[in-house]
Specification:
secreted; TIM Barrel; 8-stranded parallel barrel; disulfide bond; Glyco_hydro18_cat; alpha/beta; polysaccharide degradation; signal; disordered N terminus; binds 2-acetamido-2-deoxy-beta-D-glucopyranose; 10 strands
């Protein structure tokens, strides 16, 4: 009797282990932009939610062309007076939970652009000294060493971001990510992405009606996803989405549609990594990440 009873539990254990492995293999991460709304809660709160693998601090709105770079964190704190150095402890608390924290460059406003290879190299040096492993005198976020740099370049001027990518990736420890728009190729980030140096690419499937999910029809989204993942070499691709209907002009996907239809349609195509959300503010309002995290 004893030996007959031994097998069912062993088989059940094997099935559970196999299911667990499959679950781990298909489970995606969630990345979120934080920084552009003073009412979205602290960086530490965002990390303590347990919902995110990546936090993208938004944005370094001015850089390049020899300009003094400007960090803009909306109502959170004033970088120009040294008022954001206190974020160092939040950043370190996030990192101690395994969350990667990156600085995002650009955004839909701002004054940025690179005038030459030398200009790109000097921006890379500035980033290294002031946000990464270097030791600049005026680190706006204090002594915490960020995990990398995100490019959310949206002004249509693509010049020399390939040079910037090369300069940043001269240090292998720096994560490099980008947030292109879903129409391929991206007007601002196309040449940079062709370097093949990016770890993660979070593609904005919002404010771009031609490649969005609309009323149960995922064909345009899947087609754009296939084009992106077969045309660009990158570590992982993420589906970039608004975290609520108010977060973007178009492109919001209901949580049930996302986990039931859209994710199953794309996660076998190319190197799927998870989803990116704009932004923490809208995610707090709508609990989008909380609703979908088990199914992305
Ligand atoms: C978010 O949604 C999840 C899933 O429905 C739920 O378990 C969680 O309590 C919600 N969180 C908040 C803050 O409402």
């Amino acid at each position: 009797m004893a030996s007959n009873l031994k097998w069912p539990p062993v088989l059940a254990l094997i099935v559970l282990l196999a299911a667990g492995m499959v679950g781990i293999a298909s489970a995606g991460n969630i990345a979120v932009y934080w920084g552009q709304n003073g009412n979205e809660g602290t960086l530490a709160d965002a990390c303590n939610s347990g919902n995110y693998a990546y936090i993208l601090i938004a944005f370094l709105t001015t850089f390049g062309n020899g300009q003094t770079p400007v960090l803009n964190l909306a109502g959170h704190c004033d970088p120009s007076s040294g008022g954001c150095t206190g974020l160092t402890s939040d950043i370190q608390a996030c990192q101690s939970q395994g969350i990667k924290v990156l600085l995002s460059l650009g955004g839909s406003g701002g004054y940025y652009g690179l005038s030459s290879t030398d200009d790109a190299n000097s921006v890379a040096s500035y980033l290294w000294d002031n946000f990464l492993g270097g030791s600049g005198s005026s680190r706006p976020l204090g002594s915490a060493v960020l995990d990398g740099i995100d490019l959310d370049i949206e002004n249509g001027n693509s010049a020399h971001y390939d040079d910037l990518a090369n300069a940043l990736k001269a240090n292998n420890n720096v994560l490099l990510t980008a947030a292109p728009q879903c129409p391929y190729p991206d007007a601002s980030l196309g040449p940079a992405l062709q370097t093949g140096l990016f770890d993660n690419v979070w593609i904005q499937f919002y404010n771009n009606p031609g490649c969005e999910y609309v009323n149960g029809d995922d064909s345009n989204l899947v087609s754009a996803w296939s084009t992106w993942t077969s045309s660009v070499q990158a570590g992982k691709f993420y589906l970039g989405l608004p975290a609520s209907t108010q977060a973007a002009g178009s492109g919001y996907i209901q949580p049930g549609d996302l986990t039931g239809t859209v994710i199953p349609a794309i996660n076998g195509i190319g190197s799927y990594g998870g989803i990116m959300l704009w932004s923490r503010y809208y995610d707090v309002l709508n609990n989008y990440s909380g609703q979908v995290k088990g199914g992305v």
